[in-house]
Amino acid sequence: MKRDILERVRFFRSFLAHPRQVGAILPTSRWAVRDMLDMADLQNARLVAEFGAGTGVYTQEILKRLSPDARFLAFEIDPDLASVLSEGIEDPRLEVINDSAENVESYLNDSKLDVIISAIPFTSLPEKTKQNIFRKAQRALTPDGVVLVLQYSTFVQQDLVQRFASVRRRVSLFNVPPAFLFACRAAREGA
Asked: What is the CATH number of the domain that holds 86?
C-alpha cells in the first residue's frame, strides 16, 4: 500500500515536470496492464522492449510473463524514473535504458524484437518524434512480432492503421481515464 502511494507520488511529480513525456497524472491500472499484455504471447518471446517504462507498472507484469531466458529492454527517457526502476527491480532479464525509444536499434545487437509494449503518450509528442518512434519500432520488430500500445484516446489509431497491416483495438474501462489498447502486427509495405 505504502509502495503504491509512493509510486503514484513519483509518477505525479514526473507528470508535473514533463507533462508531454508522461502524458497521465496516474500510472496505468493493473487491470489495463493485464488486458493489454494479454494481447501478445509474452511467454514465448525471446526479446521484448518496453517504451516509456515509467515507474514499472508494466515492467513488473511483463517480467512475470516472460520465460527465464528472455531478454527485456525497458526504455525510460526520464532519468529519475529510470533510476527508480533500475534500483527497484533486480532481474537478470531486465536492462533499464535511460534513452529515447527512437534509439531502440542501438541496443538490439543485430536481433529483432518479438514484442514491443508502449505507453508513450503519442498524442502529446511532436509529430516528427512520434513518426520516428513508429518507424523504428517497425524496423526493430520480427516479421511475426507485435506492438502493443496503450493510449487515452483513439487519435493514434489512424497512424497505426497506416503503418501496420493488422490493428486490433480493445477498451479497458478499469482505468482512470478508460484506456484504448492496440495490438499491431506486420508492417505495411512502404510505411
From this structure: 3.40.50.150
